[in-house]
Amino acid sequence: xxxxxxxxxxxxxxxxxxxxxxxxxxxxxxxxxxxxxxxxxxxxxxxxxxxxxxxxxxxxxxxxxxxxxxxxxxxxxxxxxxxxxxxxxxxxxxxxxxxxxxxxxxxxxxxxxxxxxxxxxxxxxxxxxxxxxxxxxxxxxxxxxxxxxxxxxxxxxxxxxxxxxxxxxxxxxxxxxxxxxxxxxxxxxxxxxxxxxxxxxxxxxxxxxxxxxxxxxxxxxxxxxxxxxxxxxxxxxxxxxxxxxxxxxxxxxxxxxxxxxxxxxxxxxxxxxxxxxxxxxxxxxxxxxxxxxxxxxxxxxxxxxxxxxxxxxxxxxxxxxxxxxxxxxxxxxxxxxxxxxxxxxxxxxxx
Length: 351
Ligand code: UT7
Hints:
Elements: E1 2-11, E2 15-18, H1 19-23, H2 30-37, E3 41-44, H3 51-65, E4 75-79, H4 90-98, E5 105-108, H5 114-127, E6 133-140, H6 152-155, H7 165-173, H8 175-178, E7 184-193, E8 198-206, E9 214-215, H9 229-233, E10 240-241, H10 243-264, E11 274-277, H11 282-291, H12 303-306, H13 313-323, E12 332-339, E13 343-350
Parallel strand pairs: 4-5, 4-6, 11-12
Antiparallel strand pairs: 1-7, 2-3, 6-7, 8-13, 9-10, 12-13
This protein binds oxa(dethia)-CoA.
C-alpha cells in the first residue's frame, strides 16, 4: 500500500504586489529584489483574510480534484507558521469552513518544511490503516507581520495617500525580510492505494542549534507578558533572519537530503524527472540544482510570481506542475525544503 496524491488545489489572494509597488513603501528597488532573490511579484491577502481562508480555497479544489467531497476526508494536517490565532490552531477552523465530519485535525509548525513534514505524517497515518484519505494543507498569511499598517490602501491602489518619510524609514528597517514573503495556500489529498505509484522514501532532519538563525523573538511565553507594545514598536514581531547563514545551510543540506532519499531508493540523482525545491530564493534553487548536477528543466520554479509562501510553496508548485502537464505517470519527483528550526529533508514521490 502506498500514499498517492489524488488531488491538488491552490488558494491565492487576488492582490498582486510588484517590486516597484514595494519601492513606494521603503528604500528598495526592483533590481535589488530580482538580483538577490529572483522575486518579481507576490500576492497579498485582503485585510482580514487569514491562512485558514486561503487554505480552505486550496482544500476545496484539492478535494474536488480528487473526485471526493468533504465528507470523504478522514484526517487533516494543517501546516502554517501564520495561524489565524495562537489557539486553537487552523485545523478546527478549516473543519468548520469546509463542513468536514468529526475527524482529527493536526496542526503542525515546521515553517518552510511544514509541507514536507506533513507528507511524512500523512504517509504514516495512511500506512497505519486507520485513515483512508488525508487532506494536507500548507497556507500562510505573512502580511500581518509587515510593518506598513497604515499603507495597505496605498499599496493595493485604493488610496493615493503618499507614505510619510517616518513610515518609509520604519519599513526600510525590515526590508531584508519583508520583500521576500507572499501569501498563499496549497493543498493535496492523499489516499492509500495499491501499486508502484506513491510516496517514499522520506528523510527528515532537525538541528535545533540553528533555531536562532530564523526566529521571531517578540512573542514569547517565557516572558510576562508574552508581548509588549514596546516590542511591537521595535519590530520584534517581524521574524529575524541571518540571511547568509540560512542561505548556506539551504544550498548544502537540501542537496544532501535529496542524495539521501535517492540512495534509500537505489536511484541516481540523474534518474529524477523533477526536483521541486522550497521557493525561498531563486539563487538557492539554482545552487541546489547545480550542486546535484540536474538540468534546469528538471527544476521548475515559480518564486518569480509568489515569493516565499513558506509552508505553501511546495504544494502550489506541485499543483502548477501538474496543471502544466510536467508531472506525468511513472515519473520520479523529489520534494525538498529547509527552513526555520532548522528543519529540512526530502521526499520521493512516484507519480
Ligand atoms: O524560507 C527559508 C528561509 N529563508 C531563506 O532561505 C532566505 C535565505 N537568504 C537569502 O535569501 C539572502 O540571504 C537574502 C535575499 C535574504 C539577502 O541576500 P544577500 O545577498 O545575503 O544580501 P545581504 O543580506 O548581504 O545584503 C546586502 C545589502 C545590505 O547593504 P550593505 O550592508 O551591503 O550596504 C543590505 O542592507 O543589501 C541591503 N538590503 C537591501 N537593499 C535593498 C537588504 N535588503 C534590501 C532590500 N532592498 N530589500
